[in-house]
Amino acid sequence: MLSISLLHAIPAINFFSHCAQVVKSLRASPVMAHAVKEVADMSSLASTVVLNIVTLTEDFVESMKKAAPAASCRNIPVILDVCGAGATPFRDKKSFEILDAAHVGEDLVEIAAGLAKKRACTVVVTGKEDIVTDGARSYRVRNGVELMSQVVGTGCMAISAVVTRPDLTAEIANIQKEFGL
Fold this sequence. Notes:
The chain is of the alpha/beta class.
């Protein structure tokens, strides 16, 4: 792995440069490689991999399905933003293809924590109150700013701010707080 913080992201197409600028402002290096033939190699070099289904295409799905395991097998954190999941059957199917089926419970924190435990990852649920959990610890971030929900791309940019951190779950909770999401 590279010694610098390298974020490999496949964000929403319309926010490539915005996300890259956020990463650069944090003195890390962004790369938005999405070609199927190179994503596994690029993901294996990264310190964090961010995948986003907002501008979903079959090619992006194939790239994400190659990027995620390439990073995971090297213990590189993978963040999957399923923004828009639930809107269409296609989007739902592709989200599950990338992530697999998740445990469904009654409490949102329980659902997120169950998914985090099952997938050995950090799960973020955004809304009026954000939930960030790694399955063992859960944070509730209650300082949302309504204006942020009116500005497109803020979620993509907040997620891009998560580069290499020693405590990914706590760092995501802090970023959610700072962005006022």
